[in-house]
Amino acid sequence: MSILSVTGAKGGVGCTAVVAGLAGAWSRQKKAVLAFDLCRQNLLRLHFGLDWHERDGWHARLVAGRDWSGAAWRTPDGLSFVPHGSLRDGAAAEVLNNPHWLAAELASLALPSDCRLLLDTPQAGRERAQALAAATHVLVVLPPEPLSCGLIEPLEAELSAHGVAQEKLLYVLNRFDPTRQLDRDVELLLREMLATRLAPLPVHRDEAVREALAMQQQLADYAAHSQACDDFNQLATWLSIRLNGGAKGR
Amino acid sequence: MSSRWTRWLLASGAVRHPDDAASTSTVLLSLFLVAPPEGWHAWGRQARRFFPHVDFDRLRLSDALRIVLQCLWLLLVRRPGEARHGLDLRQVLPRERRRWSERRHLQGALRLYWLRFKAWAVRRFPALLDRSRLRGSVEHAALHPFWDHWLASYACYALAVLLAVVCITTPFDIASQALFVVLLLAMALWVRRVPGPVPTLILVVFSITVSTRYIWWRATSTINDDTMANLIAGVVLLCAELYAWVVLLLGFFQTSWMLRRKVVALPADPGLWPSVDVFIPTYNEPLRVLKPTIYAAQALDWPKDKLNVYILDDGSREEVRRFAEEIGVGYLIREQHNHAKAGNINHALTLTDGEFVAIFDCDHIPTRSFLQVTMGGFLGDEKLALVQTPHHFFSPDPFERNLNSFRKVPNENELFYGRVQDGNDLWNATFFCGSCAVLRRGPLEEIGGIAVETVTEDAHTSLKLHRRGYRSAYLNLVQAAGLATESLSAHIGQRIRWARGMTQIFRTDNPLFGKGLSLAQRICYSNAMLHFLYGIPRTVFLTAPLAFLLLHAYTIYAPAMAIVLYVLPHMIFATITNSRMHGQFRRSYWGEIYETVLAWYITLPTTIALLFPKLGKFNVTAKGGLVEESYFDWNITKPYLVLLSLNLLGLLAGGYRLVTGPNDELGTVLVNMAWTGYNLFLLGAALAVAKESRQVRVTHRVHARLPLTLHLPDGKCLPCHSSDYSEGGMAIVMPHAVKLAPDTPLHVSLRRSGRSFAFPCLTVFTKGNRLSLRFSALSRQQEMDLVQCTFGRADAWLRDEARAHEGTPMHGLRDIFRLGRDGFHLLIVQALDYLDPLPSRLKALARRLATLLPRQPAPHTIQGKT
């Protein structure tokens, strides 16, 4: 079982959309997938068409003192996800004080051995620590901005403090627009810095992603023939190889 | 007439249909002829459909002639059920259709039995008929260590020579020759089934035996010396045949075994790679043609500090100089423009200092991997001075365009680059072809640079290198592609230059003599040069039967049967063997079309070059142009029209001889007429080439399926792939239909080596999920990127290289007849156009006469009307 923590190099780079896209791509490739939302904004559920007013989620249940595992949902096409749940400001479950709580809980789940777990990881907080402690690999979502080059070094320092080894650290460029000179230059720079750790194909900036969310549909249902959907498929395939420890190259 | 009278007639059996009783004439008819059951009137209405050009209600005097002619024609030629002008097969009666399908059915059944029989035979006698087993046993026998012993091999050579002498020189009577030929043919057909190179060599031996036997027979027993004219005609034909025989044998030697050289990897450390100068000589080609080549040359995968690109502009054009300056490539010009391209390169050699020189014609766009692929060999072999790669064309040459054979039939070049150069490579005799090649500077300077003595400086340069003991290599990997010659006249001009140059080398620096060459190299070079002397022999073959048909000269003094039994096997074996060897690169008989078209034009230049090798100057081959209007090149076809009329005359004379000549001459007349007939089809095909089809686009489109992203104006992106591209635009297949107004601004982006490149473009049109784009306002950098993403890709031409074997030579023969027929059709249409200003009365008369001609009967459906 591989557990992939997906985090942004900074906030607002489309990390949640990447989790939803990847989960969709893997489930279409007939792989068992469980997507787990660790962000307090509780937005992953919207990518899977859950109602805005639905407040249920693992954290909400924990705070209410109930068994969290009942909060999972399954989409008609067999994809499972666990929403975070809506919480009042400042409320948090006690168990999160134990940094290995999530790792232990995930290990105790009766999941198929080839199941891929996707953790939508927030920028800070105890949930982040939980995710990084549980993850076998970390996927960092980079925006195509010059900033990204500067963000990598502190990020790697932080992650190694959490015990994530460098070779378990993978990167993907999101919202890439090749018609812009800066995007192309940033990709060139990043590829030089990260070599084979950067996904060979970036995820393009495609209006279809935003429109799908606006329609509360999964990307593949809304625009099966969009470039972004294709990119997520490619990314999923590349990750499948890297998570299995295969091919160092592209 | 009363109804009782009618009833009586019917009852007595005098008439068979009540209608017929109505008039006296039909009653009379019925008395003398068997009346049709439907009645004479109905029969007459039906019969009218066989005379569509006769109006039976208003008969005219000339209709008598029409009816007679039509009756004759119907009796002699009409074939039921055949679809002809305007006759729709669907309208043919079901009964007729069934007859056709029954025949098909019978054919299918026979074929099925034949296949079953074959399968049974292979199962029953696997050692004799199973292909893979046969191949195994043949190759096992050929590679047996037994042959390594000198005694065994020399004994076999001696035996083979003895056998060959017996087979070739023993005179046979007609029956023995027939038996000999049939036995050999049966063996050849059996051997032909077995795959692999060894059976090919066996076929070569058979072919050499039969052809040599033919030549021996021709030389010893068919020369007619009763009159001087006969002797001369006979000897001329014999010489032409001797030439063809020598070229056949040399060709077998040259291409019997391909080396199929592999790419040698470069050392991992780029520090060890040598420096390379890329020379792009140009004279007057437009910058538009030049640009992609330079962009691609700049982007070759090679350390930037070791790669220098130079434009060698003999036209000294300001526009080119500015362009070179802008993109930062070298620009070299010279004061005196002597020795054309060779002089141009030699001048550049004095100004540059790279260890290696790569040369590209200005329209040959290299792929990025060119140097990676070609340079490896140089590092391991000090004596290697030249690596040549094939010339590949992404636009159709005049033959391909005018015969509509582009990408369907291998073109004229493919035999040379697919087989001949690779065969040469086995003997270290690959020669320089002027472009798409890398030369080592040291040896090149040692021989005084590119050779300037002849107009084919390339082949001469490599000859000089070989004389100095340097080696050459051929890599059969398309690593550059360019434009083919644009018009037939330009194409012929280029071939004339090659033919003249090769002949010049043959005279001034004959590879058979002089020092430094191995025997095999001498043979390979000689064949390359002798090959271009086909002008006179080909013309002789096109006119030889006329000597008998028109002048009654016995050029081959032998009974017709003997001629057939010697000539046909000679041709059949040569065809089978060549098809087996080259079927992938040249379709059978197409070589004859190529030669027929060029023969007349290269005859004079090669003869002059043979006599006065110092004459003549270099002419540039025009490229990148456009044939704006379809036209028929009368100028070029003149010699063929002359040959054609002579051959037609010969055919008429043959017909006359058939009727009036003595009985014992019949066979000879028929043989000569068959030969003339074949020549006529060849000439017809040559005429078809002269019809220059219109070229629609200025830039030529390359078919390629490249993945790309389409960026729509609304911010959505679609993953698409291209169906073709050119420097100016692209056709794209989208995942679903998108409607876009013309001139909608868009972007396409392509990926290359981990990077994206985006290009602004405008919609030309959309049709369903197809989108046609033209690039708009590309910057210099974008133009460069575009070339690198398209023409410059390492795998750009991989798909074009793969070719299927032609299978059987029969397709080629069918092509000749088809093309010949098309040629005649074209000629007649053109001639009618040409004769347009005929007096109108003459034309009216012709039209009136034409109405007398028989017609195809109207389809049966008319029956119901009336």
Characterise this structure.
The complex is a heterodimer of chains A (250) and B (866). Chain A is an alpha/beta fold and 250 residues long. Chain A has helices at residues 15-28, 44-47, 58-63, 101-108, 126-134, 147-161, 181-194, 207-214, 219-222, 227-243; strands at residues 2-8, 33-37, 73-74, 80-82, 116-120, 137-142, 169-173. Chain A has a 7-stranded mixed sheet, with helices on both faces. Chain A starts with a strand and ends in a 7-residue tail after the last helix. The mean pLDDT of chain A is 92. Chain B has 31 helices and 18 strands. In chain B, the strands form 4 sheets. Chain B has a 7-stranded mixed sheet with strand order 3-2-1-4-7-6-8, with helices on both faces. A 6-stranded antiparallel β-barrel of chain B has the order 13-14-15-18-17-16. A two-stranded antiparallel sheet of chain B has the order 5-9. In chain B, helix 9 packs parallel to helix 24 (560-582) and helix 23 crosses helix 27 (666-690). At the A-B interface, helix 7 and helix 10 of A face strand 14, strand 16 and strand 17 of B. Chain B: GO terms for molecular function: cellulose synthase (UDP-forming) activity. Chain B: It is a multi-pass membrane protein. Chain B: It is found in: Cell inner membrane.
Tell me the layout of helices and strands.
The complex is a heterodimer of chains A (250) and B (866).
Chain A lengths: L1 E7 L6 H14 L4 E5 L6 H4 L10 H6 L9 E2 L5 E3 L18 H8 L7 E5 L5 H9 L2 E6 L4 H15 L7 E5 L7 H14 L12 H8 L4 H4 L4 H17 L7
Parallel strand pairs in A: 1-5, 1-6, 2-4, 2-5, 6-7
Antiparallel strand pairs in A: 3-4
Helix pairs in contact in A: 1-10, 4-5
Chain B lengths: L2 H10 L11 H9 L7 H8 L13 H16 L17 H31 L1 H4 L1 H12 L7 H20 L4 H19 L4 H25 L6 H28 L20 E7 L4 H12 L8 E7 L4 H10 L2 E3 L7 H12 L4 E4 L5 E2 L3 H5 L1 H5 L3 E5 L9 H5 L9 H15 L10 E4 H6 L10 H11 L3 E4 L5 E2 L6 H21 L10 H12 L4 H17 L8 H23 L7 H22 L19 E2 L1 H27 L5 H25 E2 L9 E2 L3 E5 L5 E9 L3 E5 L11 E8 L2 E13 L2 E6 L4 H10 L8 H4 L8 H25 L5 H11 L16
Parallel strand pairs in B: 1-2, 1-4, 2-3, 6-8
Antiparallel strand pairs in B: 4-7, 5-9, 6-7, 10-11, 12-14, 13-14, 13-16, 14-15, 15-18, 16-17, 17-18
Helix pairs in contact in B: 8-10, 9-10, 9-24, 10-11, 10-24, 11-22, 11-23, 12-28, 21-22, 21-25, 23-25, 23-26, 23-27, 24-27, 25-27, 26-27, 27-30
